[in-house]
């Protein structure tokens, strides 16, 4: 059992490992597929001749330029990688596969077009240009000829071209297909390779009329933007049918071929039959030219020289486009002074809330500029305030459209404010003092606030002060204290506004003023004093029959004045009283 159990565990672990590996290999990331807009951006189509003139009547061998105009509605949210796809009518033939960039007038790539000659399928893949521009309009051109497998000539055909609302038809008159003239002695034609636009094929039909040409010499002059592929030269004697089909016979030896300064020559000797010469050239411009040319010449004894300049059928294609963008310039200012502020940072958000750019900073002049904005409504949201200023995340909204594509906006900031706390103290005891009143002034002495009074804790506080220098000036002292109008100067420093600035103001108690002494005013008598009587010598006193009662030692009996008595208010009265008392005591002792 243990062995079986271990075996099953091993198998289970192996299967689990395999599942993990497989899930890892086949794990995919979901990617939004590109959108094909078909022909819905195609506005108009017409056929142009080689001079760019619109035509509906062409010769059987003529080339035609299929000319489209197209535009992308601003309401359509086209992304990079999205495509425009359509097919040209089957009655038209392309000389070769095509690939070219569609650019604006600044050389920016709007999209890349490819055309398949075998199917006439056109695909334009858009770049991110379409995400950054509005009002995008363009043109597309494709050089074609009649598809000779379908068109026989001398007929009217209807070409159905795809457009934004379906298709549109163009009736075209096709000329007659020509046969080879019986007296023809020299004819040449060429075409672009269907798979390689840089490779050009050339064919020369010599002496179709089969006239006698002694010492016949054929020369070929290679045209501009080409190089001869000498080893590709081939020549055969043979016969042509009435419709130009060649049946090859005896080959002409390559020893008869020789290079010249501008092409090559073939020595044909005495020529009495027809010959076909073929060769290729390579375009030095990568096949970007619409047409390439060569010149053929046939000479002989007693033969009028024939010369023909031949162009390849127009091939290739091209296109251009242009779009409109807008811009915004934001100026950052101080809310009060309107001075411009550097160092503020913003993010740019579109109408869908997508962040397009971040960390966009105002420069030394307090400005930031953003270009290449397609039509939309945007917001600039501040993410970092200038040093010393409050962050304000209120969005600055603006809209760019066909009527407003150069926007200027302003964003103001207020300085970070600080606060100050003044404590009123007794100069000696340091006890806090309530009821002191101050006014707040700037450093020039301009009054900013008045009636600022210390509370029961001896404190007054002022907030929302922008950085700068200020002063408190006392306008009323606490009760019992002397006023001190010496300014209390303090500074709110930018970047240091988290904590209040603390200052103190001390007061000295008032010095009490002693009262001025007022001398007492004596009461004036209401009755004038009587004149003093003449003293009478007293008779000798007779002893009293009653025994005198002794007084307690150290006591004196004094009659207190009653209401109406005249008080003794001066020294003379006191002296008289004393003398009288002494006399009485002396008489009693005798």
From TrEMBL:
Keywords: Cell wall, Collagen, Membrane, Peptidoglycan-anchor, Secreted, Signal, Transmembrane, Transmembrane helix. It holds the Pfam family Collagen_bind. One of its GO terms (biological process) is cell adhesion. It is found in: Secreted, Cell wall. It comes from the Bacteria. Residues 560-590 form the Gram-positive cocci surface proteins LPxTG domain. Residues 511-532 have a biased composition (Pro residues). The chain crosses the membrane at residues 569-587. It is a peptidoglycan-anchor. GO terms for molecular function: collagen binding. SUPFAM superfamilies: Bacterial adhesins, Cna protein B-type domain. Residues 554-565 have a biased composition (Polar residues). InterPro entries: Adhesion_dom_sf, Collagen-bd_dom, Fibrogen-bd_dom1, Ig-like_fold, LPXTG_anchor, SDR_Ig, SpaA_PFL_dom_1. Residues 500-565 are annotated as: Disordered. Coiled coil: none annotated. Belongs to the serine-aspartate repeat-containing protein (SDr) family. This is Collagen binding domain-containing protein. The lineage of its organism: Bacteria, Bacillati, Bacillota, Bacilli, Bacillales.
